[in-house]
Specification:
38% helix; Nucleotidyltransferase, domain 5
Length: 376
């Protein structure tokens, strides 16, 4: 179906798929970009326990990795295709309305220092199952151009959220946390990078001690107290003081790292005190990064799963005063769907042979179209 700026109902739709570090679900959105951005529908596809467990085991080196990766690559692709089909059926879309699917895939390794990143969930299979052109493997072209391959969402944030009169920061708190700096001055470049852990350490710790997938509203963290000695050790990690461009992942922020830091203390702490300290680590690392840019009259908007953690939001509000803090709901986009919408936008850009990265963010040698196209 061809696009039309005169009749928005004739404009093609794009589907974005996002499976993040937290592995809580697959986010699927249907959007259109012509004549203006519009979120039309969204769907959250649960990740079955067996696939969740298999993915977790691949985050760290282990036996028989290639065989397990090959099987999981296909299992995840089937699940991504199911998410697309459910989104289409639940909203009575027609397949021919969809110009393309933008699938981020599931990150298994992100090693920018070694110049490689790996996302699985075979786009060939998604295209085959749905009959819709699918675009995936967004990160490696940026890496080929000397970039970090991440974060990629700042380009979308800039397209959708930049304001001519207000300095803004978008903070995505998923498994990792990343921010986008959008200065009001139009000649200022977009900046963005991973600040460090978002939910990943808190999720891992509560799973280990209470068999819960996440700490709703920070309730467990609220029962503990921040341990200054542990927080100091955590913040001493060189990553926090490195200059951008930079990106990170579970390779650095994981249970083993927490265990090493906790074991180095003079006495063993209560688990809830560690949880409180991990929440404080996320809040302080985000706030310190934002404050380092010394912007005035700043509007801070949260998105991602961490935007629902009321204790984390309270701490960020306190740490960022006098700047205002809210979520992207204030900008007419639900914080749960921003990342999936970003990969729909990246698919839209790729089909139009336009760039999807921001060199000032990733460190790439220049603007590049991102992703590989698997025709439907």
């Amino acid at each position: 179906m061809s696009s039309s700026t005169h009749d928005p109902m004739n404009a093609p739709l794009y589907i974005g798929l996002m499976s993040g570090t937290s592995l809580d679900s697959i986010d699927a959105v249907a959007v259109r970009f012509e004549p203006a951005f519009e979120l039309l529908a969204c769907h959250s596809e649960p990740i079955p326990a067996a696939i969740h467990a298999a993915t977790l085991t691949l985050f760290n080196p282990g036996d028989n990795e290639i065989e397990r990766l090959g099987r999981l690559d296909l299992e995840l692709a089937e699940l991504f295709a199911t998410a697309v089909e459910n989104l289409i059926q639940l909203n009575a879309f027609e397949h021919q309305q969809i110009a393309a699917i933008g699938s981020h895939g599931q990150t298994i390794r992100h090693r920018p220092e070694a110049h490689f990143t790996l996302q699985i969930g075979d786009p060939n299979l998604i295209a085959e199952r749905t009959g819709i052109t699918t675009i995936g493997d967004f990160r490696r072209r940026d890496m080929a151009a000397g970039g970090q391959g991440a974060p990629l969402v700042p380009a979308f944030h800039n397209a959708l959220f930049r304001h001519p009169e207000h300095n803004r920061v978008l903070v995505n708190i998923g498994g990792m946390a990343n921010l986008t700096i959008l200065e009001a001055a139009g000649d200022k470049p977009v900046l963005g990078y991973d600040t460090g852990p978002g939910n990943v350490l808190m999720d891992s710790w509560i799973m280990q001690h209470k068999s819960e997938s996440y700490d709703r509203d920070g309730r467990w963290a609220a029962t503990g107290k921040v341990l200054p000695a542990l927080l100091e050790k955590l913040l001493a990690l060189p990553y926090f003081s490195e200059a951008p461009p930079k990106s990170t992942g579970r390779e650095q922020f994981n249970c083993d790292w927490i265990a090493q830091m906790v074991a180095s203390l003079d006495s063993q702490p209560q688990p809830e005190d560690v949880q409180a300290t991990l929440l404080e680590l996320t809040a302080v690392s985000i706030a310190d990064a934002i404050k380092s840019h010394q912007l005035k009259d700043l509007q801070v908007f949260l998105c991602g799963g961490g935007s629902h953690n009321s204790l984390l939001k309270t701490r960020l509000t306190q740490l960022l005063k006098p700047h205002s803090l809210s979520t992207t709901a204030e900008l007419s986009l639900d914080p749960d769907w921003v990342e999936a919408a970003a990969f729909a936008w990246l698919a839209y850009r790729t089909l139009k042979r336009m760039s999807g990265n921001v060199p000032e963010v990733t460190g790439a040698a220049g603007y590049r179209p991102l992703g590989a196209i698997y025709w439907g």
